[in-house]
Amino acid sequence: MWGKIEAGNIIQIYAHPVTLVDAQGTVHPKSYFKDNAKLATFSVYPVTPVGGLPTHQHLYNDGGINYVWNSTDSVIEATHSFIARNLEDVNAVDENGDPLLDFKGVQIVTIGLRTQLKNQVRTMQSSLLAATDKWIVRKSEKSTAIPTTVTTYRDGIRSAATTMETSITDAADFVAISVLFDATYNSDNVMTAPAPLYNFPSEPNGMPK
């Protein structure tokens, strides 16, 4: 990206190269954007990102980009801001602060991060259990015994999901939620424990078909 400077102010940001017109009306090709020296004659300068991204970017809302002209280095610095998402569900309101209702007159609720994470855990649990639901059907329809391996695996899935939901519920704040996505490493940078969230048991070897 690039930006045009006029009287020390950023007046335009270019996401892509464009043709440039000089004071004499001569049109210059987009290839000028490959040469910062040529661009500078048009007061156009490169945009340089500053600052980093949050570790768990999916836990944040995009707060937009702020551009600042750095005259010392002749670059435009772009700082991307991120806003931590709300943990709790919030009743939606209109511009007057009145409750926002759907067409049935029911309060519209903006789902918070805590609920979203729990829903994701439940979705993953359902998907994993579905792979062995055939044994439940066979038991119901034909009284076919469910293999112990299957029962143990399904119990492990449910237990893991319960543990995850409890961890989400017990997380005191946004930082505590973020930690649930962090694996544990020893001094040799070897993982000693996976991240608490989405850590379901793997399908065991010898799973009956």
Structure description:
The chain has two domains: 83 residues, no CATH class; 82 residues. Helix content is 30%, strand content 25%.
> Over the alpha carbons, how many angstroms does the gyration radius reach?
27 Å
Q: Could you say which overall geometry the principal axes of the C-alpha atoms support?
A: elongated
Question: From N to C, what is the helix and strand string?
Answer: EEEEHEEEEEHHHHEE
Strand content: 15-25%
Given helix and strand content, the structural type is: alpha+beta
Low-confidence stretches: none
Number of helices: 5
Helix content: 25-40%
> What number of structural domains do the residues give?
2
Q: What's the average pLDDT?
A: 95
Briefly summarize what is shown.
The chain has helices at residues 36-40, 113-130, 133-142, 148-170, 174-179; strands at 2-6, 9-14, 20-21, 27-28, 44-50, 60-70, 75-84, 90-91, 109-110, 184-185, 191-193. The protein has 209 residues and is of the alpha+beta class.
Tell me the layout of helices and strands.
Layout: E1 2-6, E2 9-14, E3 20-21, E4 27-28, H1 36-40, E5 44-50, E6 60-70, E7 75-84, E8 90-91, E9 109-110, H2 113-130, H3 133-142, H4 148-170, H5 174-179, E10 184-185, E11 191-193
Parallel strand pairs: 5-7
Antiparallel strand pairs: 1-2, 1-5, 3-4, 6-7, 8-9, 10-11
Salient structural properties:
209 residues, 2 domains, single chain, alpha+beta, two-stranded antiparallel sheet, five-stranded mixed beta sheet
